Amino acid sequence: MSKNENTSKRHMGIKAANRLSNGAIYVLLILISVIWLIPFVFIVLQSFRVESTYQVGYVVPHQWGLQNYINLWNSDFKRWYLNTFIIALASAVLVTIIQLCMSYTLSRFRFKMRGPLMRFMLILGMFPGMLTMIILYRVLSDLGLTQANAVPGLILVGFASSGMGYYVSKGFFDTISRSLDEAARVDGATRLQVLYKIILPLAKPIVIYTILTAFMGPWGDYVFARYVAFGTSAGYNVAVGMYSWLTNDQINRMYTTFCAGGVIVAVPVTILFLCLQKYYVEGVTGGAVKG
Amino acid sequence: MKQYSDLEFLRLSKWQRFCYKFLAFFAAIPRAIANFFINIGKGIKKCCLRVAAEFRDIGQTFVNGDWKTKVSFLVMGFGNLTHGQILRGVMFLLFEAVFIFYMIFTGGYWLSMLPSLGKQGPTNDYDAIYDSYTTHYHDNSFKILLYGVLTIFFIVAFIYTWRMNVKQCKIIDQITKKGGKLKGSRDDLRSLVDESFYKTLLALPLTGILVFTVLPIVFMILVAFTNYDGAHNGFSNNLFTWVGLDNFNTLFSWQSAGGGQSYSATFGEILTWTLIWAFLATFTNYFLGMFVAMMINKKGIRLKKMWRTILVLTVAIPQFISLLYVSKMFARNGLINLALGPQGLGWISQPLPFWEDPTWARVTVILVNVWIGIPYLMLITTGILMNIPADLYESAKIDGANAWQQYRKITLPYMLFITGPYLLTSFTGNMNNFNVIYLLTGGAPTNPAASGAAGSVGYTDLLITWLFKITTGAESQYYLASVVGIMVFVVVAVISLVVYNVLPSIKNEEDYQ
Amino acid sequence: MASVKLTNVKKIYDNNVVAVHDFNLDIHDKEFVVFVGPSGCGKSTTLRMIAGLEEISEGTVEIDGEVVNDLQPKDRGIAMVFQNYALYPHMSVYDNIAFSLRLKKVPEDVVYDKVTHAAEILGITEYLMRKPRALSGGQRQRVAIGRAMVRDSKVFLMDEPLSNLDAKLRNQMRSEIILLRQKLDTTFIYVTHDQTEAMTLADRIVIMKDGYIMQVGTPDEVFDMPDNLFVAEFIGAPKMNIIKTKLLCENGKYYVTPFGAKIPVDGDKGKGLAERKVKGGDVLLGVRPEHINLVSAAEHAIPCTLVVEEMMGSELHLHVDTDDGTRLIVRVPTLDLSKAERSALVAGARLHISFEGKAMHLFDPATEKNLLT
Fold first, then answer.
1. Where does chain C show beta strands of DSSP type E?
2. What is the CATH class of A76-290?
């Protein structure tokens, strides 16, 4: 290789190399976007298919129509949707309160039992939560909160133990300087005043994050909801109800209805999520890793 | 083993260094184990001393106290009441009254039945008036166990409260002797929003955790030592009772279980797959997610926000929709097989066995999990990647590192350091990832060799889905589910303990600060 | 406006680390006391115990004659300025300063008067509507001080208030604190690790190390009569030269023999030694850089080699090695040097130095206590 060639290669330029790799990245990113979006596009398209209700080998409907959505309206879906919505709303309020209490306390107070308490909850978290289902079911059924009354039962169980999930928001609280608390206390604030005058306004992102995740959780809750509702359609949430549509004996009648239901469930949640995306990202990146 | 000094160590070749570290690691194990037991011993000793000190303190309080203190040993809160601390005194007294009433009217019964879990099951008695047999229900093992545990909790709480009551007397004694002023009820209430605000804040969450997590877990641990199942539900058919370690013997026995392979073989298979799954699911997501994040983050890539939003969008859609839909997409008569099959493109003559063949199913599950998990990991890693100081890269570039070397020597160590704890929780989370497995495959395809085991065990079943299947299966062997649950706990705890002790982010917390 | 009294105050952390040992101090009304020491010496912990932000493990703290151990910070009548300012990021400057007044339910027009008055004194009136993040470091510092000012507190606590500022601003704020002190006329307790701040601000300095008080005294006292080696080295910049040498006692007269020279310990210091009947032997000799003189070769002069010279503007810092390899620092006013002398000061030049007996400090090598006080 002559010296000339060598230098010309060295001088080929950062620009050209960059353009090459950037091009490759764009191709990859487009590919990824397609893979990630395609199932959702399929769901939407199939929800408008009226010529058949079973699975087919094509995506674009031959005949478009709203028949599936009408079916949805005539089924128990309304009830399921309402159930889920109530649970989601209640847990958004209750879970948020519980988790904020827990994480604020563990981040700010240094009391004797703090260390043991946190260790204890860490160990507790290592037990599979499903183990507790059997007994919780029996207890709920003794209280009359199963089957058709599953909604209050699910709310109760959902928020009662939610204090265990304090890690993310505690990670965020830990990033707020403690000298702010101290300054406020010197300024004459009680701990309660410190919380609502100083900390909560500063913790807005994590509060919204907690509300958002607490609201979204129940929409995907399947296993416990199924356990508690136990075959009574009136107590189903959307996940349990729609799962039953895809069992072997129903799928050929209900497949497209399932797609329509999926759209109805996903659209509002997704819109809400996109509006609050900023806070979600902040919560995930700030708290999830630290916790 | 020879110890090298730092300078000697630096003279070693790469291979020698590796050997040295490798050997040093194993050489340290006996010592670590010894330390573990020594620490346990120390802990026990400390505990004993502590208890002894408590008793001594109680004794001294009694001997040194005046008559009010002495009465307080029997009538809780008496000391507080007579010293004007009305609120505290009333609370103590109330608690004692409730406790005594509870123990007399119900607690005693539950406690006395706890060793036997019930003496008489339902009986079919002849009713002379109606000339028919009617079933009479008697003891209820389930309730006995549940309320028995609750009663024990209550007794522990009572002992603790009684101890507090004694301590209060001592404090009152000390303060009054010094001529100080006691805190009144008003101060107590005020402190609940100030110094003791944490008590107010924690009251509700901890009660919830105690009742809805601790109690059930203690209950279920105990169930592992009983024969509680569908046929012994403790009330309407048969009582259940203590069986000692029988259930553990069942799970670990090598004897074939009803025609199939032994329970221990089934358990071993599921555990192995659970660990493989957790490992692959965690690290495929982690590295691919990081890769996507780095692509989007690269300088000169436009529309960063759009790419991110497209991926984040998929986080928003409830998992059960996407998982169920994808599950059906890959089914035998699902979209993919139909599209590729004779009626569609005609590329294949037989449907692809996505969920029918064990290997296909396992690979597909992991791929779909990547699809589910990447957006989330992309979000997490984006945040951390942006926090890596740019001057590290600049200095590496000047030192002559190419892109790959920069990744290997700067990005990756930094990421692993920061995300170490996250990877651990993510690993254990994946071990218990019920949703993905259950909604995608339901554990299918079925493992014929394990047909003798409880629940219908499949090749993609994790311990957690197996547990679920056991409890919902025809025979509902709750005792076995609870043994499996305890095993899950043991595995998770051991892994966490080991990883926690070698994790650099725990050991050298300041390295990257 | 109050006195502060600490009696046998101790701080023991949960892990049995003792941060402060047996701290006793009487701070008079309207006094300006500075706690100074290297990081980790317990000075901030002590301040925070006075503020009520840290529990007092043992001993008592009294403010204005009242034991405040069990009082909440807000009930102790103190105001505090924090190292990182601790401004509430979501409130405007006005709201920050008004925060404590509003908690006390002071009528809004009184709040207005007080806040604007404080802002005027501090020169931050035009920033009142801004959020803290839109302010520079110096301005934030002023807001923090303003917040403390409006509380009309009995004691003013400041925890390293200037350490986050750059050097120039720090000097400026330092003189402003002196002015502020004249205006407020109250008791100040000030924590810093910077001995210059301590010397310039304090009525009395408390020098701490590893949780112990090393010396309490006025700036003059700690500079001229350090109780021990630590204080001697800590106060003064560049720090005092310490030379291992011997003390001779001949006919009631004392001499030190650094580097083969024989220098009499004369004046009050010699008398002091005689009164205490100090025997000769090993001592540590301390000489401040400004008390070492450059001389021409003479009888008592010590020969040495110049290693580094630092031009500080009005003075030169010369780092010299004596023939046995001891490194000393010499401070020479630039004015004292002729042009020729100045140009001769290059690395490697041979110099002679000497110092006088009255400028010397002598320490016991074992106890590190000052032999002269």
1. 4-12, 18-27, 32-36, 58-63, 66-67, 78-81, 155-159, 187-192, 204-209, 212-217, 241-250, 253-256, 263-265, 281-287, 292-295, 302-311, 315-322, 327-333, 350-355, 361-363
2. mainly alpha
